[in-house]
Amino acid sequence: MSTNPLLIFNAPISTIGLTLWEVNSTLVGTRPELNVIAGSNITVTGSDNVSNNRFDLTINGSSGGGGGNASITIGTQAALPGTSTTSAGAVYFTTDSPAAYVFNGNTTAWQSFGPIFPLTPPGSSTNYSQLNFAAGSQTLTDYNDGHAFILQSNGAFNVRGLYKSAPDGTFTVYGAHLLFASSMSSSIRVGPMLRESATGKLVVFGYSDTGSTKTIFMTSASSPTSYTTDALALQGLAVMPWLFYKIVVDASHVTYYVSVDMQNWIQVLQRNLTSDFTTAPDQFGYGASNQSNYPIMMRVMHLYATTP
């Protein structure tokens, strides 16, 4: 047996039911590893030091696929493995659906949980350029899972946000965010953004609220402060608290989609490329304009661009 420290108990070894011939230890990096001999189960019984609540921890050393063989796997829904070859306690996250699965070993089927969406965070805000930032007008905070973007009220159309280079040629932008907004009787516009670097022209696609009308929209502007037009995509809908956006840019059109599950997409708008841009957008990100009486907050947790 190794001389590396394995476990330290403030109790005799007989109290925890652990015999020396059932275990041995090796050092994995800087951490001791407990190796259980096949066929032996070890139960450690203990209690906390405040209320003496007892607990049992059982380590299954069965060579037949005990709990120690459980795994966490990420893959497509179609690749979900059969339960006959799956250990109890296995967890499977899907990359193309809002479902996660757990196999408890007591049934012959996976248990589905969700919605749990596979998200692609936008990455550090330092990888983006700031659009129309002004002192005291916005607050941007980075987190591991995305950005918190708080935009103060402004009496006029004024898009602020972040952008970076898009892929060459045909590309698709995916985006999603949590949103808090109280527009009262003035307009807000929030969502993924396309921008043309040569001209500064931009579009914001997402959620709009004028107090009485809630819409999915596309707003076009010749600059962050020069509104051009709104192209209504959907009106009078019950907007889901979590909505996914997709924008496809090809050689002649920009096509806009929404989804609630990242699997099934509804096309809500298509416009000629030159309706809103001189040539074509070559940058993407997210933007917001807040003409309401109160701040709005975007929690951007999903944003990326890809090529076909």
Description:
By secondary structure, this protein is mainly β. It has three domains: 1-69, no CATH class; 71-113, no CATH class; 125-306, Sandwich (Jelly Rolls). Helix content is 1%, strand content 48%. The protein contains one helix and 22 strands. The strands form five sheets. It has a seven-stranded antiparallel sheet, with no helix packed on it. Strands 10-11-22-13-18-19-20 form a seven-stranded antiparallel sheet. Strands 5-6-7-8 form a four-stranded mixed sheet, with no helix packed on it. The longest helix is centred in the last third of the chain and has 4 residues, at 273-276. The protein is elongated and about 70 Å long. It starts with 22 loop residues before the first strand and ends with a strand. The relative contact order is 0.15. The model is unreliable at 1-25 and 61-68 (pLDDT under 50).
Parts with pLDDT < 50 across at least 5 consecutive residues: 1-25, 61-68
In spatial order, strands of the major sheet run: 9-12-21-14-15-16-17
Number of spatially distinct domains: 3
Number of helices: 1
Shape: elongated
CATH architecture of the largest domain: Sandwich
What would the average pLDDT be, to the nearest integer?
Answer: 81
Number of strands: 22
* CATH class wording of the largest domain: Mainly Beta
Strand residue content: over 45%
The CATH topology assignment of the largest domain is Jelly Rolls
SSE run: EEEEEEEEEEEEEEEEEEEEHEE
Helix content: under 10%
Major sheet: 7 strands, antiparallel
- Alpha-carbon Rg, integer: 27 Å
Distance between the termini: 56 Å
Structural class: mainly beta
